[in-house]
């Protein structure tokens, strides 16, 4: 009897571990990439072309958001206009974008909110809340898009959308065979680095946390099961 219970316990325990592994593997999103999908769905619903997701432009958008951090007004507007030199002398080098490949920026939207919002809410309420932003989104000159986002600790959150007429994969080329320079803060689109609410999450720590937590829950469950049965 005891032996059968034990066996049953181990079965529950190991299925729990399997579940833990599955749960953790589902957690590798990047909200900047979700925003690119939302932008493209909105454009294609209005019979406009889908934009190419450029990691180089995404990283520059992150620099833009970082540059504009500060002075977030209550209505989400930011007074911030980086110069062309900021793009070529600061943003691009910070990302490791090869200078001769910098393309023409055909549109830019930068906004902020008192806190982080999910991508669809940020799109509707913060980024594309007025007709001016909507006309930028629906401009036919764009070929590619980059999204950057970064938050201030316990402060407002910043989003930046950049559009370019650049030709797919010959503009905003990242050095180091497309990896560029690793960013310490924020998220950007086109990147394979998992990111949550503007913070990098190291895959290892997330997986570890999930496994540990689920593991503890499972042990508890198994103990309950045995207590009830004995
Ligand atoms: C914030 O606003 C102040 C006053 O208008 C200005 O001096 C400062 O440069 C602004 N900061 C940024 C990052 O735009
Ligand atoms: C947003 O707020 C700023 C400063 O508080 C103001 O100058 C601007 O006119 C406002 N914009 C809109 C669209 O309400
Ligand atoms: C589209 O963007 C281009 C480049 O920024 C600009 O010259 C043009 O006026 C925009 N078109 C519309 C309809 O806003
Ligand atoms: C596209 O986005 C605008 C602004 O948020 C919204 O008003 C419109 O309904 C969206 N269109 C579709 C098809 O989702
Ligand atoms: C774009 O990238 C793809 C895949 O890396 C490559 O096959 C293609 O030749 C590139 N196109 C241009 C115009 O460089």
From TrEMBL:
Signal as UniProt keyword: yes
Top-level taxon: Eukaryota
Keyword Signal annotated: yes
Keyword set, alphabetical order: Signal
PROSITE patterns: PROKAR_LIPOPROTEIN (PS51257)
Signal peptide: 1-25
Record protein name field: Uncharacterized protein
Organism listed in the record: Rubus argutus (Southern blackberry)
């Amino acid at each position: 009897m005891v032996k059968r219970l034990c066996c049953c316990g181990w079965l529950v325990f190991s299925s729990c571990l399997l579940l833990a592994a599955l749960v953790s593997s589902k957690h590798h999103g990047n909200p900047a990439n979700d925003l690119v999908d939302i932008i493209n769905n909105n454009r294609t619903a209005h019979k406009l072309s889908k934009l190419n997701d450029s990691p180089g432009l995404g990283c520059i958008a992150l620099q833009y958001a970082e540059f504009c951090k500060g002075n977030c007004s209550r209505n989400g507007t930011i007074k911030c206009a980086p110069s062309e030199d900021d793009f070529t002398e600061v943003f691009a080098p910070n990302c490791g974008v090869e200078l001769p490949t910098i393309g023409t920026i055909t549109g830019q939207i930068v906004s902020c909110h008192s806190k982080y919002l999910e991508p669809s809410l940020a799109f509707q309420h913060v980024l594309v809340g007025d007709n001016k932003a909507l006309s930028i989104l629906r401009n036919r000159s764009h070929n590619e898009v980059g999204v950057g986002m970064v938050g201030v600790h316990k402060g407002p959150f910043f989003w930046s959308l950049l559009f370019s007429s650049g030709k797919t994969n010959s503009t905003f080329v990242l050095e180091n065979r497309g990896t560029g320079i690793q960013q310490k803060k924020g998220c950007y689109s086109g990147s394979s680095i998992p990111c949550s609410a503007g913070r990098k999450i190291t895959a290892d720590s997330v997986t570890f946390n999930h496994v540990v937590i689920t593991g503890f829950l499972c042990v508890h469950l198994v103990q309950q099961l045995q207590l009830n049965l004995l």
